[in-house]
Amino acid sequence: MNVIQIITAAITLIGGVFFYLLERMPGTTYFIPNNFNQALVADDFGFINQALPSLIHPFAFILLTVGVLGCKTKRGILFASLFWLTLDGLLELIQHDAANQFLTPLLPAWFNKIIVLDNVRIYMEVGRFDFLDLVFITLGVTAAYFISLLTRKERNSYEQANKQTE
To answer: How far apart, in whole angstroms, are the C-alpha atoms of residue 86 and residue 103?
Structure first.
């Protein structure tokens, strides 16, 4: 495990939650209740308001994945990064009109009975595809990849220094 990566991921996720609470309208996000105080809602970030979560999500989850799994190799970090790039990219693409018109009828009825999956249909039908989100996903993945490499090297250097002093 890499504590630095896990803490960075946790702080990023907490910041993302606060961003959603302050910047998104109640009822538009899965975990924000419809009766949440709308007086807190602002649009201080402009166009970034919609795209920033697309950066935060893969960034935090790559660091969390790499940190929990203790990935030390570039290959392991790259694999985790590509996994989250693919997942977040596909989640964005299924919001495109062409994709959701094709895929929505294929969703099984049992999705409605499982928490989190119960909103997939609404996510596809109501969500909107935005190319800027794909750009921000890519930026988040790239940043997480390089930060993972940097924090991995610091950890390895520390371990090597301890071995040399023993």
So the answer is: 17
Of the candidates 10, 125, 98, 100, the residue with the CA atom closest to the CA atom of residue 59: 10
Single-letter amino acid code for the residue at 44: D
Q: What CA–CA distances, in Å, run from 73 to 16, 76, 85?
A: 28, 5, 18
Largest Cα–Cα distance in the chain? 63
pLDDT at 14: 94
What is the reported pLDDT for 27?
62
Q: What is the DSSP letter of 33?
A: -
- How many CB atoms are closer than 10 A to CB 33? 9
Q: Backbone dihedral region of 46: left (phi > 0), alpha (psi from -120 to 50 degrees) or beta?
A: left
Reference 48, options 130, 107, 115; nearest CA is 130
Q: Residue 161's CB: how many other CB atoms inside 10 A?
A: 9
Instruction: Please write the tens of the pLDDT for every residue from 46-75.
Output: 667 778 889 999 999 999 999 999 999 999
Per-residue pLDDT reduced to its tens digit, 125-156: 778 899 999 999 999 999 999 999 999 865 44
Is residue 31 helix, strand or coil?
coil
Determine the angle formed by the axes of helices 131-165 and 74-93, rounding to 10 degrees.
Answer: 160
